[in-house]
Design a protein that fits this description.
This protein is mainly α. The chain has helices at 2-24, 31-45, 61-77, 80-94, 100-125. It starts with a helix and ends with a helix.
Length: 128
């Protein structure tokens, strides 16, 4: 039961994030709301947090509190017709099928690059 609730919350967060993304692209969105939305998205994607993630438990609390509150505030500040249009686009984008083959190709590329970096590191810093 708890796992289903967490999955639903993650799905809702994805939908809200996509809604904000499409709202940012709308020319009718007020500039100050657009700026705030970009800051929320930048904070969500930034490796720099108020509380570093490596601190057990509380390291992720800022991500679990600040980002959802920021998204909710952006949605509240955005005109309703912009949000309605963005929600339709977000729902449409969320229903698109996931291409696992493309994901596998990208993971393979990253693994090859990582392996090359390790090989290069051993060559460069190895015993001479």
């Amino acid at each position: 039961m708890m796992l289903n609730k967490i999955k639903q919350q993650a799905k809702d967060m994805k939908r809200h994030t996509l809604t904000v993304y499409f709202a940012i692209k709308d020319p009718e969105m007020p500039w100050f709301t657009k700026l705030f939305a970009m800051l929320v998205v930048a904070y969500a994607l930034s490796p720099i947090d108020l509380i570093p993630d490596f601190i057990p438990v509380i390291g992720y609390l800022d991500d679990l509190i600040i980002v959802p509150l920021g998204l909710a505030l952006v949605i509240r500040l955005t005109p309703q017709h912009v949000i309605n249009t963005a929600k339709l686009k977000a729902d449409s984008a969320a229903e698109k099928p996931v291409n696992y083959y493309t994901g596998a190709v990208f993971i393979l590329i990253w693994l090859l690059l990582f392996g090359y970096a390790i090989h290069f590191g051993f060559q460069f810093f190895g015993a001479k």
